[in-house]
Write a structure and sequence with these properties.
This protein has 119 residues and is mainly alpha-helical. It has a domain at 2-10 and 30-99. It contains 5 helices and 3 strands. It has helices spanning 2-10, 25-30, 45-52, 56-62, 84-100, and strands spanning 42-43, 74-76, 79-83. A 3-stranded antiparallel sheet has the order 1-3-2. The longest helix has 17 residues, at 84-100. It starts with a helix and ends in a 19-residue tail after the last helix.
């Protein structure tokens, strides 16, 4: 999990000064709702898999409700989209949780049962 976080944090990001001014009226109207969210931060499952260097099937499996620690995603009907900043936060939390978890040893092997004929 730590290597996934390292890959995510190493992904190139734009500098704050490189952001273009908002000239589109719709974008300007909705910019107050989530000012930190940019269109390039919304990713498809294929793009998330490419950035994390994991199979697409892994990403889809992590979106399922039955998953123990599901990846944050936005469902748009049959489509799934990801906020890259939320994915990084999820990786950071999962990495910290993994580091703080107590080590558990494997259960001891059971002794084989001998077949004793019953009399």
């Amino acid at each position: 999990m730590r290597d996934l976080l390292d890959r995510a944090l190493a992904w190139p990001r734009r500098a704050i000064g490189d952001q273009p001014e908002i000239t589109d009226r719709v974008s300007l109207h909705f910019s107050h709702i989530s000012p930190g969210l940019k269109p390039e931060d919304i990713l498809t499952p294929e793009e998330v898999a490419a950035r994390l260097k994991v199979p697409e099937s892994w990403v889809y499996e992590k979106t399922r409700a039955r998953c123990r620690n599901p990846i944050p995603c936005l469902r748009l009907g049959r489509y799934v989209r990801f906020n890259w900043l939320a994915v990084i936060a999820w990786l950071t939390a999962a990495s910290a949780q993994e580091e703080n978890a107590p080590r558990t040893s494997l259960p001891a092997k059971r002794k084989p049962v001998r077949n004793v004929p019953r009399g």
